[in-house]
Automatic annotation (TrEMBL):
Keywords: DNA-binding, Transcription, Transcription regulation. Pfam families: HTH_1, LysR_substrate. The keyword Flavoprotein does not apply. The keyword S-adenosyl-L-methionine does not apply. It comes from the Bacteria. Belongs to the LysR transcriptional regulatory family. This is LysR substrate-binding domain-containing protein. Residues 7-64 form the HTH lysR-type domain.
Length: 304
């Protein structure tokens, strides 16, 4: 019987890393190997399957069309391999071992400082690897297996996922100084000056939530999208450059401290985002994710 030689998981990891980084040196660093080791592993893979996957030049790394298809398949294989370990962990004690969680930037600085000490104290065998990134990148990482779960704000299309809603996070309008004194206690969408509205740059789901809260199509064209973080936008408002929308969790965490900025709730029924934990459907660690979601929810309610 003929012997069939199959690609190793290590070779597939090298291939995916090169695709992600587009550079042999950076891919080798990500895999914790030397560049020569990674290059040799990829050459062995190409010899094994008998096709060229990567066109190598001095300046660029270009994947062949077949190479792109094999990378996509390699991601699925690596994800399935990761889930073999997840099956074993799921059979043991809850929240143990490695867990990779992505958190969007409009949640991470306001929620994580409160919850991480409790997780470390109650689940010392959990190694939580955190990545802060916008919703689209986080969901892409979830689908290709780079991330195990994502803490984000809904509504947002994140693919075929299961989710555990945690709590609702209301949106507020923020103004410089006493600018809001002449406005009603709850800000209505018809009182918002869209030409002065400062929002996060594209890629942040809070921008879409804020525009939905305005309920005025023309606001999308008028709004100035220029902030890279909520802290930056608050400083812009404090310096009289415009107005903005802020989530309640950021205000509760003190983002307006030491500024002259005041915040008023929005009267719109759309002025809310739902904070949720999402993971791939049929993940063997679903019980872990639901337990983590319960802990996150309790932290918001002050019982953590």
């Amino acid at each position: 019987m003929a012997v069939t030689y199959l690609p190793t998981l290590k070779q597939l990891q090298y291939l995916v890393a090169l695709h992600d980084h587009g550079h042999f040196g950076r891919a080798a660093e990500a895999c914790f190997v030397t560049q020569s080791t990674l290059s040799a592993g990829l050459r062995d893979l190409e010899v094994l399957i008998g096709v060229v996957l990567v066109e190598r030049t001095r300046r660029i790394v270009r994947f062949t069309p077949l190479g792109e298809r094999i990378v996509a398949k390699a991601r699925r294989v690596l994800r399935e391999a990761d889930e073999l370990g997840d099956l074993a962990r799921a059979a043991g004690r809850p929240l143990t071992g490695d867990m990779r969680m992505s958190v969007i930037p409009t949640i991470a600085p306001f929620m994580l400082p409160r919850i991480l000490p409790k997780l470390r104290a109650d689940y010392p065998d959990l190694r939580l690897f955190l990545r802060e990134e916008p919703s689209a990148a986080a969901c892409e990482g979830l689908q290709n297996g780079r991330t195990d779960c994502v803490l984000l704000a809904l509504p947002f299309a994140c693919g075929e996922v299961a989710s555990a809603p945690l709590f609702d996070d209301r949106l507020f309008m923020a103004f410089q100084g006493t600018e809001a004194d002449s406005l009603p206690a709850a800000i209505t969408d018809d009182t918002i000056d869209g030409s002065r509205l400062l929002l996060l740059e594209d890629g942040h789901c809070l921008k879409d939530h804020a525009l939905a809260a305005c309920n005025r199509p023309e606001t999308r064209a008028e709004a100035t999208m220029m902030g890279t973080s909520l802290h930056t936008i608050v400083q812009m408002v404090d310096n009289g450059l415009g107005i903005t929308m802020l989530p309640e969790m950021a205000i509760a965490a003190g983002i307006l401290d030491h500024t002259s900025v005041t915040a008023r709730p929005l009267a719109s029924p759309d002025a809310v985002r739902q904070i949720a934990l999402v993971w791939r459907r049929a993940s063997p660690r679903e019980s872990d994710f639901r337990l983590l979601a319960a802990i996150l929810s309790e932290a918001k309610q002050g019982r953590a």
